[in-house]
Amino acid sequence: xxxxxxxxxxxxxxxxxxxxxxxxxxxxxFVFSDFNAQxxxxxxxxxxxxxxxxxxxxxxxxxxxxxxxxxxxxxxxIRLLKASLLIFIKHCKQHDLELHKRGFKLSxxxxxxxxxxxxxxxxxxxxxxRALGNWYGVKMEPWLLAxxxxxxxxxxxxxxxxxxxxxxxxxxxxxxxDFDESHFNANPYGMxxxxxxxxxxxxxxxxxxxxxxxxxxxxxxxxxxxxxxTQMLEAVETWKSLTVAFKKALEADDMNLxxxxxxxxxxxxxxxxxxxxxQIELVLLARKSGASAKFCGSxxxxxxxxxxxxxxxxxxxxxxxxxVNILLPQIVYSx
Length: 335
Known about the structure:
Ribosomal Protein S5, domain 2; 335 residues; four-stranded antiparallel β-sheet; four-stranded mixed β-sheet
């Protein structure tokens, strides 16, 4: 019977901080197990990478084709598996890690909603690296797994990306992240701290009609930051202060302050960015109930906190009336 291993990774939700983490900023993010990506590695003759559902190039008719490309985009997961394998090989060669010669086949499945800012692509990559590490007996500390996953997207595939998503997926725990440049000068990673108190009263809501890739939302911010635009530099400092304030409020169990920080986080983003009007409406709709709301990532999905069960009941009613999906995420707290 063929031997094999499975790598699993979960979607990421950014709770507070700057909307991208390439600015030396701060953020808090977690992963949740309501969805997942799995990469299956099975013993095989030679090396073979199998396409997933969205990689197939055959459709029943034009309508099916249009729906597929509109919802899933132009790229599936097979390029993610190939790039992950290549980065893994390069890492092992660089560190003189000898790999056994047994062949294998790679395949993947995922049910993470796409193009909603939940980091479904990086979940496939993280799952693949985990599977490869298990297969070859290569141990990877969480910070290293995050770095390698980041290299897959940026170095091999040329996708604009930061470390936040990969750090949350590597640690499988809510993490406070400080990407201060001085720390990177002395270490190959940022300052990552597992939160000491559990998160509670968190919700996530999303509408598939608002799907939008992160490259659409974040590119301009990075250019403005690198150009030294005053408004952008000041915004990053404000997002950092909001992240610190949220962390202190969490430790003090101050729900009101946490909600204020979440709302202020989005309001600043809305002030300096041109956001889709429907996405702004989604945030405002959630806030009608008294809950806080901001984007989970690039847009399409929102995240926030509610103060009590009455607020949650009103939130569910308002969102469901507008055909918006809502879930109370099963936040992952791995040892």
